[in-house]
Amino acid sequence: MDNRRPVEGRTITTDQPISQPQAPPVCPRHPDRVAYVRCQRCGRPACPECQRPAAVGIQCVDCVRDAAKSAPRTTTAVGGRVRRGRPTVTFTLIGICAVMFALQLTVPGWTGRFMYAPVLGVHEPWRFLTAAFLHSTGFFGHIIFNMWALYVTGQFLEPVLGRARFTALCVLSALGGSVAVLLLASPAQAVVGASGMVFGLFGAMVPVLRRLGGSAAQIIGLIAINGVIGFLVPGISWQGHLGGLVVGLALGYGFAHAPRERQKLFGWLLPAAVALVLVVAVVAKYAAVGVL
Description:
Elements: E1 3-7, E2 10-14, E3 51-53, E4 58-60, H1 61-70, H2 88-106, H3 110-114, H4 118-121, H5 127-130, H6 141-161, H7 163-184, H8 195-211, H9 217-232, H10 238-257, H11 263-288
Helix pairs in contact: 2-6, 6-7, 6-8, 7-8, 7-10, 7-11, 8-9, 8-10, 10-11
GO biological process, one term: proteolysis
Pfam family, one: Rhomboid
Subcellular location: Membrane
C-alpha cells in the first residue's frame, strides 16, 4: 500500500497505514454527552448523571438497577420490605392533610364537600375516607396533634411493616373510624379528622412492639388517656377513635403473627378481609334503616 503524506512540499512514503481519528465515546442513555468513564460491569460509557459508585469503580445506572432486581429481598421480622430513606407514605399523608387544611381555610364550602356524616355517606361513599384528611378549622390543635402522632407512629411502623402494609393500615383505620360512627353515633353526626387513622396506628403498635420484643406500656397508656378524653370532652368522636383502634389492633396482630413463610400472603389477604368486613357492616346498617 502506497501511503504518502506531504511534509513541507515533499511526499514521504511510509509502510504503516494512517489511523483515522476516532469519535469520542458517548453515554448510551444520553448520546449528546461525551463519557470517558466506563461501567465496571458492562464496559459501556457512562456520563456523570448515569454513574453510580460501586464497591470497585463505577457502574452505570442500568447495571445497578439490574443488580437490585436480582438481589434477594430483605424483609423485617413482620414481613415488611427493608428500604432506605425517609418514610414516604407518612410524609405523603401529612402533606395531603396540610393541603386539605389550607383549602379548608381558603375555599368556601371545602369542608362541607368532603366531611362525613352517616346520612351523607349512603349517597356519597367517598366521604368515609375523605373526612380523615380534614380537620377542625376552629381549633388548630386538632391537626397539630394528629400530624404529630402520625409522624411519630409512621417513623416506626412504616419501615417495619413496609409501605404497602402501612398504607393499608392507614386507609382501613380511617375507614374503620367512619364505619364506627355509622354504627354507634347519630345519623346526622358530622366528623372530620385523622383521629381514626391515628388510633389505628396506636392500636397496631401494641402487637408489633410485642412481636419485636419491645414494651407497649407507653402506647397503651397513651391510648387509655386519649380514650378517656374522647368521652369527657365535647365535640370529640369517641366512636371514630374506637373504630380506628379496633381495625389497627386486628391488622397489627395479623401482620405481627403471620407465619414467616406466609407473610406476603397475609399482607394482601388480611387487609382484603378487613375491608370486606367493613363493607358488609356498612351495607347491613344502611339496609337495616331502610336506605338501601
